[in-house]
Amino acid sequence: MTENFQFTLKKTDAGARLGEVSMPRGTIRTPAFMPVGTVGTVKAMYLDQVRDTGADIILGNTYHLMLRPTAERVARLGGLHKLIRWEHPILTDSGGFQVMSLSGLRKLDEQGVTFKSHVDGSLHHMSPERSIEIQGLLDSDIQMQLDECVALPAEPREIERAMELSLRWAERCKVAFGNQPGKAMFGIVQGGDVPSLRIRSAEALTELDLKGYAVGGLAVGEPQDVMLKMLEETLPVLPTEKPRYLMGVGTPDDILKSVARGIDMFDCVMPTRSGRHGLAFTRRGKVNIRNARHAEDMRPLDDQSNCPASRDYSRAYLHHLVRANEALGGMLLSWHNLAYYQELMQGIRKAIAEARFADFVAETQEEWARGDLEPV
């Protein structure tokens, strides 16, 4: 821990980077996967369990927490960490993703975004300054700039307009953030699938000398190879001594390939959302526990795992729970998936430290390709 925000790059292995972010509330080992706790909860999980899987940091969402319980109420109650009983770092998304995902419920102009609440229809205006104010009321450790995220495919002219607007909002967010010892504001590179726009965005954000940089607007409809190409264009422009965060990504394969290109931080709802729908990520690839083949299989999902959900519960029981729509099924599979993601990150960090990341990737992909255990 440290009184100030600090990123230390410890080792590189080709493009992959091993490091750590030190903050007053704790150290984030990178490459890191950050479970998503949108409204102050990682869905279907106790936060003690989330921590036990190996998570150093979780996310909250500015838009959703603004609506309920409201940022002002969270502040009166002592901040988000106290409210949810999570003493470690929290990163808050600025609401920029909702500019895309709730496009039918918002109006956008130079000053910001006016949202029509999906909860009760009330109107809420979020400017760059208000976004930072909300994140401050939440007492977030890493605060994201407000940006406009564009779904792909999109016209280059529209992508450029959104990118330029996001840059202007980044400047306003930096002013609003000011000097907050021990905390950080990250800028967000936009530019869709247009390399020249990605480079322009990264160069302009670098000039702002922020404490970290995210790559946004990817995994929003484009193929994986396009996402990776945008990383290859963007990351060389960003400063090597600051953390790089790929927002909303992704599958285990996305993570491996993005680490190889220099990404340090990830978040995604995929492990918990998939778990709630009966899909497990394992060292042998994806497993749909709903399938009839698991109905009388007393083997666990992964007898090598340290996670009780992976190791101590049979596939037959998980199958029964999911097919019976019991909440416990989604809870156990979410727990298993988060544990698998954190075990993957631990393996990545160890491999970079030992200068064998390429071998680790090959071994992991080979194991996925083997497929699940043979049916009993």
Protein topology:
Elements: E1 6-13, E2 16-23, E3 26-30, E4 32-35, H1 47-52, E5 58-61, H2 62-67, H3 71-76, H4 80-84, E6 90-93, H5 96-101, E7 106-109, E8 112-116, E9 123-126, H6 128-138, E10 142-144, H7 156-177, E11 184-189, H8 195-207, E12 212-215, H9 224-234, E13 244-246, H10 252-259, E14 265-268, H11 270-276, E15 279-282, E16 285-288, H12 308-311, H13 315-323, H14 327-353, H15 357-370
Parallel strand pairs: 4-14, 5-6, 6-10, 10-11, 11-12, 12-13, 13-14
Antiparallel strand pairs: 1-2, 2-3, 7-8, 8-9, 15-16
Helix pairs in contact: 6-7, 7-8, 8-9, 11-14, 13-14, 14-15
What is the 3D shape? globular
Total domains: 2
Oligomerization state: single chain
| Stretches with pLDDT under 50, minimum 5 residues | none
For the CA atoms, what is the radius of gyration? 20 Å
Q: How many β-strand stretches? A: 16
Tally of separate helices: 15
Alpha-beta content class: alpha/beta
Mean pLDDT: 96
Biggest β-sheet: strands ordered side by side in the sheet: 4-14-13-12-11-10-6-5
Kindly, what is the distance between the CA atoms of the first and last residues, rounded to a whole number of angstroms?
Answer: 49 Å
Output the CATH homologous superfamily of the largest domain.
Answer: Queuine tRNA-ribosyltransferase-like
Measured by DSSP, the beta-strand proportion falls in 15-25%
Helix content: 40-55%
Report the CATH topology name of the largest domain: TIM Barrel
User: How many strands, which pairing sense, and closed or not: the largest β-sheet?
Assistant: 8 strands, parallel
CATH 2nd-level architecture of the largest domain: Alpha-Beta Barrel
